[in-house]
Amino acid sequence: MTNADFEKLVDTSDEWIVSRTGIRERRIAGDGITGSDMAVEACKRALDMAGCPNEEVDLLVLATVTPDYRLPSNACVVQEKMGLPNAAAFDVVSACSGFINGLSIAKAYIETGQYRKILVVGTEYLSSIANYADRSTCVLFGDAAGAVLVEATTEDAGIRSTFLKSDGSMREWLWIKVGGTKYPYQKGTDPQGLDKIYMSGSDIFKVAVREMGRASQAVIENAGIAPEQIRWVVPHQANLRIIEALVKRLNVPMDRVYLNIEKYGNTSSASVPLALDEANRQGLIARGDHVLMVAFGGGLFWGSALVKW
Ligand code: ACO
Questions:
Q1: Is 96 annotated in the active site?
Q2: Which of 134, 155, 176 is the last residue of a domain?
Q3: Chain segment 252-289, per-residue pLDDT in tens
Q4: Which residue is closest in CA terms to ligand 1's atom 26?
Q5: What pTM did the predictor assign?
Q6: Which residue range is the domain that position 273 belongs to?
Q7: Does residue 20 have its Cβ closer than 6 Å to ligand 1?
Q8: Which of 3, 74, 76, 96 is catalytic?
Q9: What are the percentages of helix, strand and coil residues in the chain, rounded to 5?
Q10: pLDDT tens sequence across 76-95
Q11: Is 131 close to ligand 1, i.e. is its CB under 6 Å away?
Q12: For position 53, which CATH number holds?
């Protein structure tokens, strides 16, 4: 969907969307395609690139806020569709920071030795929960999935540090009020958009810049590197202005930031792995490069990861 498509739907303009967000297009899943289908495709491509047979995957961590079902987890659906006979599989629900949370879980499990080959996938069917009557949010979101395989190694490489933090007191700034057990659907009533995403964008904007900055500094310090040593920042692609403000704080030049928000919009937990995969497949990330990933979203929940490639 292009900005021109949105001009026909709500009172907005290409000029407003581009100047306030940096978004020009988003991808919308086709009829009958769900988050698990996109996740399967992403996981297959990740395993193919890693040369890892399905049988060797011993854990699948799937980040999403748009599962196919309320029960069971989307991870179990993907496990069955892919055929991962030796894996355990579970979901994490951390909105836009879900993939970073997944990486942190993978790091911890690999360090304990419990699992050795872990698929981490972020997948979102956000068009199913976007409110296409609300111009302040609907123009932001797109559908996508991205995946990585994390495995144990003795090489001088890997996930050096992760940082996670949340503050549930601001949960109503980004939520779907109706449809859970507290506010169930009332049969025969119109939910009036309360069953779709509501976001107080300008409130979140300020906290996002501040906390993504702190989260980035935390992993840089924990990894024992200087900010100048960061070769790539792969941030959550929610808003170009947030990303610009963030890297200014970190004193990292924009040519070290991988951006694809223009093409996809905000794809929540898929955003970071989607950008990472694009940068990797374009050959932009070299062995030994320090890559900083950082995200912020509903919960509120935010996090970062520092990887030596
Ligand atoms: N087209 C035209 N005008 C619009 C649109 C639109 N699509 N949307 C809002 N406006 C108007 C508003 O109505 C308002 O008008 P008013 O001044 O007459 O009241 C004006 O534009 C400014 O609105 P703001 O909300 O203050 O605009 P802002 O500059 O903050 O941009 C945005 C909004 C893009 C949502 C921004 O606040 C943002 O990106 N916030 C952070 C989002 C984020 O990072 N979320 C976390 C991740 S998402 C997740 O977890 C799923």
A1: yes
A2: 155
A3: 999 999 999 999 999 999 999 999 999 999 999 999 99
A4: 202
A5: 0.96
A6: 159-308
A7: yes
A8: 96
A9: 45, 20, 35
A10: 999 999 999 999 999 999 99
A11: no
A12: 3.40.47.10
